[in-house]
Design brief:
The protein is an alpha+beta fold. It is built from ten helices and 15 strands. It is globular and about 55 Å long. The two termini are 37 Å apart. 35% of the residues are buried.
């Protein structure tokens, strides 16, 4: 399938007129609703380590229906501003519009360039990301697919069609990103809506990773898995040795057991939950619910990693995100240690 890496280019200067100034003024107002800012990206704890902030987001092609009514509106400009506020080094994107002639005619300020290129530029027109785009679905008026935005050089890419049937085009984009001296393998995933399709697509992904990526190479797999019943995680983690970022933050089993014994011995206690009695930790499902964005309930989006320490993971919720897409974005802070040191 078609895949493209685009290098940052210096933006061409263009004259500003009164209409441009008014549009920028309106967008700046949109970018200032009351919201909690993300904490700063943590520094690496060791000199030879690299701190990475990783995000994944299904952007719904930059077009969403209004909360009240059926009118469709473009959110791509505000979405770009919000993405740059995340201070992420790697952004895994799904449902990225490479071309859409109907939207270009319908929406007055629809970007002239593909969405991955448009989103790579800051609102002040400084392009700060390299981009890779993998086309998954093509139609008469355009195409869309997955994309990776990277502050580090993208030195290799491949896009594969994993569609299970003709009515639902799906793909996986594989990029190799150079972080210092280390090659980090990144897979941008968007699985299907049917359970059997997802199982077969997971099998194709596992086979690809097993054949293409060394077992000691750092690996990030992120995207929209559509796995709201959580039937894929155990197999993925078991067969290729990855860990979901929220699971990596769970307290160790031994620590939970000690806390349970302390509570049992010192408190005139109600019965402890079964998971604690058995020394297990409750799965952190609530913190990773991403769909629908207005009231997140289903775990659709994931970030899996291998070869990193996970220092933080969060879902970005709230009306300001719900007005941009039907999914909420995930953000994780990772620490990569150079295996050569």
């Amino acid at each position: 399938m078609n895949a493209t890496v685009r290098r940052p280019q210096p933006p061409a200067e263009r004259p500003r007129n009164e209409a441009d100034a008014q549009r920028e003024g309106r967008r700046s107002k949109l970018a200032k609703p009351r919201r909690a800012a993300l904490p700063p990206k943590p520094a690496a704890r060791e000199p030879q380590a690299a701190a990475l902030r990783v995000s994944t987001y299904n952007i719904h092609k930059g077009v969403l229906r209004e909360f009240m009514g059926l009118r469709r509106v473009t959110r791509i400009h505000e979405l770009r501003a919000r993405l740059h506020e995340l201070d992420s080094d790697l952004i895994f994107l799904q449902e990225v519009q490479g071309q859409h002639e109907r939207h270009a005619r319908r929406f007055e300020h629809w970007p002239e360039e593909p969405q991955d290129v448009f989103l790579a530029k800051s609102p002040k027109l400084r392009q700060t990301f390299e981009t890779a785009y993998g086309r998954n679905a093509s139609y008469l008026h355009g195409h869309h697919g997955n994309a990776l935005l990277s502050r580090y050089p993208i030195i290799g890419l491949e896009n594969r069609d994993i569609s299970d049937h003709a009515l639902e085009k799906r793909g996986v984009l594989h990029c190799v990103v150079k972080v210092g001296r280390v090659d980090v393998h990144c897979f941008v995933v968007h699985f299907g809506l049917l359970a059997r399709s997802r199982e077969r697509q997971l099998g194709a992904l596992i086979e690809w990773v097993s054949n293409a990526v060394s077992v000691d190479a750092p690996l990030i797999i992120a995207g929209d898995f559509n796995d709201w019943r959580n039937q894929l995680s155990d197999r993925l983690c078991r067969e290729i040795g990855v860990v979901e970022v929220f699971d990596a933050l769970r307290p160790p089993v031994e620590l939970v057991r000690r806390a349970a014994y302390f509570a049992r011995d010192r408190l005139p206690a109600p019965e402890l939950p079964e998971a604690v009695e058995q020394g297990g930790a409750a799965r952190m499902v609530r913190t990773a619910r991403t769909f629908p964005a207005l009231v997140p309930w289903l775990r659709m989006d994931r970030i899996y990693q291998r070869g990193f320490r996970v220092s933080a993971a969060r879902v970005l919720r709230g009306i300001e995100w719900a007005r941009l897409s039907d999914h909420s974005p995930l953000v994780a802070d990772l620490e990569l240690i150079d295996p050569g040191t």
